[in-house]
# Entry
Amino acid sequence: MLRKDVTLVKNAIESLTEILTPASGRGLQARSYVAPSQVKTPTQSPTQSVPKNREISVKVNDSNPNSQARAVSREKLMEHINSSIRNSPNENLTRSQTRIRAIKRHPSGDLTLYTESKEHTDYLVRYRKDWQSAIGLNAKVIVL
# Structure
């Protein structure tokens, strides 16, 4: 009786291994009877990536959840920063036509600012003392 049970279990395992075949690097996968040319591989949706040289990281350093940097929308904050840049007493900064094009707010509250070009990023980093207070009194541009 035990021998018969072992044989049944063995046959069941063999039939499963015939159905399941090892897939490269993904463990066991069901055998497909579809021709390889008919199998569609998933493609990643194209995302617009911004080169790192157009990013400015800003540490907000403000734990108050009602602070300006945390309470206002990204659009309003971007408008406020661009206004500060435009009205800066530093002629080099105002003449450069440098603007923030987008802002990403991280869960920590810190920000990543995006500019149109590397030159704009360089200007903003070089003259950061003239505009970073528009984000908050304790906000600091992180220079890597």
Remarks:
- Strands lie at 20-23, 27-30, 55-59, 100-105, 111-115, 140-142.
